[in-house]
Amino acid sequence: MLGISNRGLAKLVSMFKHGDIELDEVPGTRVHEEIVHKHFDSVATHLEIRCSSTRLDTLELAQPHKLMQLLVAENAAIADDYYSAARACSPSMQAPWNLVVAYDEFTPSDSLKPNKMHKKSMCVYFSFMELMDNDGWLADAKWIPFAIARTATHLSCGFSPYLRALVHCLVFGDAESDFVRLGAPVQSDGRDPILIFARLHAIISDADGLRAGYAWKGFRALRCCLKHSNAVANNSDLAHRRPGFVEITNADPSLFIRTSIEEIDEIVDTLIAFRGSPTALGKLETGLGFAKSEYGLLADRSLRRHVGPSRSLIDVAHFDWMHCALQDCIFVTEANALFRQIGGTVIADIKAFLRDTPWQFPSSTNRNCRALHRIFDEWRSSTDGGIKCGCSEALCLFMVLNCWVEEHVLGPASTPFKESFRAMAKVISILLATKRRKMSMTDGAARLASAHRSYYRAHIAAYGDEHVKPKMHYIFDIAEQFKEFVRWCVLDMFVVERLHQTVRDIARLVDYTGRWERSILSAVINKKLETTESRHGLHGRIHQSELFPGVQCARSIGSQPNLGVDDVVFWDDLLCCGIIQACCKEGDELFIIIAAFQQVSISSSFCSRWLRTPDAYVVRRPSSVVPACAWRCEGDLFIVLSYLGC
Is residue 254 in some structural domain? Predict the structure, then answer.
């Protein structure tokens, strides 16, 4: 009880007085600690991780199969997801589910805390593609966090041995359950058990995460593409020396050659067998594109056989589109190149445009978009004077900045830098359209490869190859991923970023680092078990409609993304537009009431003008509408920006 504030003491006294808490439930007491850690301790295990011939680490984590069993047994909403998926696609050894692993690094502490770096951590999640809902989304609630590791404490030897051990534990389990031979049973009260078999289908992270997990050299290597063996670094003076090799500035995806299973096996075996000097090893790693990691992911022969025979662990790697298209890549690169081309007071003009124009944003992104002008503050600028922002901010900025460029820069006359900017905007729009299932994965793959080829050529024609980065080339890899995921949806790191919010909020409060992973995972598991609200449903305060008996109304509704009252939305392939007046539910049916607009004009492929008309209302399902990116009002006139102007 030492160190409690007067306000905290008064709150505890009040709770005792009203009988809301027992003495053993006071935070810090032994019984309270047992209650907090009860669920995690029931599924906890210690995983031995071989990092080198002389180093063996131990990581405390939740045994993934037992954790999945616990969540299905204790949470009715999670159980419904698994049983619905099993009815649609029963898992078996011959027809296993498709397992997806996602991971990323984050810093949980406040930026002003001096001890923040020793808690920088990697968090690992898993889910199954069969858990997708009817709208084709793998919702946040369907991902299970089972491991967290601090960089300073655990990952000084590199993350690849850890990823190998974690994926191996997830796939092959233990003597009681696994996803390959025995199956992992789950059961909810009053229902028959489900025996889950699964095959590793995808490992998703950003480029830095894949580099760490695969012991891949990334842009530091001569072969700077994980999936194409013949793509070499820009200006490396190597492509012309061997037939079939191309630099990453090549805009023709038909010339790329996929890294074969035999080739990656040969690379790994060559590095493991190498016994030369550190200097010679460094040169070999730079040439082959991978670091020597005898106990890394690619060296696990059982995992190699598991994903085979027609796929390799490289094929399982999944590039994240949002980092390749938005953050420090084609959007930011193109915008910075355009600003340098325009020169003058362009940064000040854009900042004033964002600050002074009354743009409104959807309720699901409003928090990230309210201060977009701050991106152009001097302290936020990158070292070369360009803009620097996160993916969520970049997505909001993309459309508003595109509107400014169309109105103030591009105009009717065609110039190389204008064509380059328009080509970049089309690439991102195709990515967003495919993500929101407004075009099929097959169509999205073909159109993305074609649009990115055009953008590559337009950018090089306008600015040369000075700004071409390996991340730009990875867009071609993403187009190939769309073909592999033709049955599914677009996976990205936005879901991981949202999952990180829960973990980060908990980790920020935990300063004891003795069993830090246990403290974090205990709180995360408790929160998942307590979450009973379905993602699809009314959110916030719910009330009965005065006009329609039996209809419930609320300010927002669960969909992908969430929709709220006063959000502007499109439907019927962007031919219709309106503003949401009510979010409703009748029985099990969810619907929204929209005040329809009348189109006035189309300013550009992304911007249109609409007039609000009285007494024109429509009723739509949430899945049938697309939220506008941003809009502003001039009386009854709405200037609306759309993500999907392609």
Answer: yes
